[in-house]
Amino acid sequence: MSAATTRSRTPDRLCAEAVDLARAAAEEAAAPGVVGEHVSVVVDGDRVVTHFFECKEPGYRGWRWAVTVARASRAKVVTLDETVLLPGPDALLAPEWVPWSERLRPGDMGPGDLLPTEAEDPRLEPGYSGADAPPPNSALPDAVTPQNLADLVEAEDATPEPADRGDRADRATDRVADTSPAPERGSIASVAEELGMRRARVLSRYGLHAAADRWDEAFGAKTPMAQAAPAPCVTCGFLLPLAGSLRQAFGVCANEFSPADGRVVSLAYGCGGHSEAAVMPKPPRRAAPVLDSMATDAFPLRPSPDSGSVITAEAESEDLGHS
Predict the structure, then answer these.
(1) Quick one: DSSP state of residue 246?
(2) pTM for this prediction
(3) How buried is 17 (Cβ within 10 angstroms: 0-12 exposed, 13-18 middle, 19+ buried)?
(4) What is the average per-residue pLDDT within 111-119?
(5) What is the CA 232 to chain-centroid distance, rounded?
(6) In the chain, what is the greatest distance between 2 CA atoms, to the nearest angstrom?
(7) pLDDT digit string, tens, across residues 159-198
(8) DSSP code, position 140
């Protein structure tokens, strides 16, 4: 071990005794009353030491104020080098920083929030393929270049010259102008817009699988609600099937009393609101009265004498003593 290394491990006496200078520097940088007791001294080099003081700031448990002092060679005065707050061995540290795109969870977005997607998002793929440039086997050149013009001039040499045409180079120039790339109106993007293909990107196979796993975990066959259901959603009348490749596995629940109302559910999911689980019996209805409108009912003008319901005139006159 060299002599210089040995000297660097031994603290300079004047620098090690400059505790008051280091405390004053720490109190100047910190708020009043947050600099605690002197903890230790660490040798940083020849005539360079760092004094550590306890930090009493709430929320910074285990942190220490580090004040570095130094002394020039053959000098009697110790000078201040640096003051900083550093974590100690048992310091309370913040968790490792995570990008916002990885911290975001379903349900975190609110009104007015924007969630940009990356250009190479694996969940998406182009909605229509191709580019606005002509294909490699197209008769249209990509651009008008001197090489294209020379090739066209050579092609004109092999063909007879019409009488009504001018100079050969002019004809080649006209041909290049005629075969220039199509205008923007005829581009693939504009054609896709005209055909209703307005989405530049659609779900990729990876995006479909990720969505299916997420939906199946929330409203799938392994949930407690589905395990206790009388029947799966595939036989429920409230199920609205999806379109596309996921219609064989998922649908949308339209039962307002179901816990999955308006949610994408697996066809193997189920709940107590199944349309065929318990059909309520209809209340009994009273039979309609029978009216015979084809026959007639006889209504006698006078009651029958033997009916006993009406007193005759003779019996009335005898009781009253009339003749």
Answers:
(1) G
(2) 0.40
(3) middle
(4) 70
(5) 28
(6) 169
(7) 555 444 445 445 444 444 444 444 355 566 666 666 556 6
(8) S
